[in-house]
Amino acid sequence: MVVVIMGGVAAANIGLGIPLIVLTSDPAAIAEAPFYLGAVTMLRTALLAGAAAVCLVAARVIRGRDRQLGGFLNRAGLVQCCVRRR
């Protein structure tokens, strides 16, 4: 995954002529915005990841006792993993 991301950064730098400092710097620093600019987005991402983890762990624990509920929690956790940020 890291190789793909860094390949994209290199392609943008070489192909589009975007300086590496723009591609690798903090967006708030580049835009001269307040330091808390991405705090809400990061909080949302952390909450979604936590919800996915709780669902997936609960699915493993419950699956032996209640197969239907375990399957539901497993699918709910996988959906949480796939939710994209806007």
What layout of secondary structure does this protein have?
Elements: H1 2-16, H2 20-24, H3 27-30, H4 39-62, H5 67-82
Helix pairs in contact: 4-5
- Strand residue percentage: under 5%
Radius of gyration: 19 Å
| Overall spatial form | elongated
SSE pattern: HHHHH
Please give the count of helices: 5
Kindly state the mean pLDDT as a whole number?
82
Which residues sit in consecutive blocks of at least 5 with pLDDT less than 50?
none
Q: What is the subunit organization of this protein?
A: single chain
Secondary structure tally: strands:
0
How many structural domains can be distinguished in the coordinates? Answer: 2
Amount of helix: over 70%
Distance between the termini: 21 Å
Helix/sheet category: mainly alpha
Largest sheet composition: none
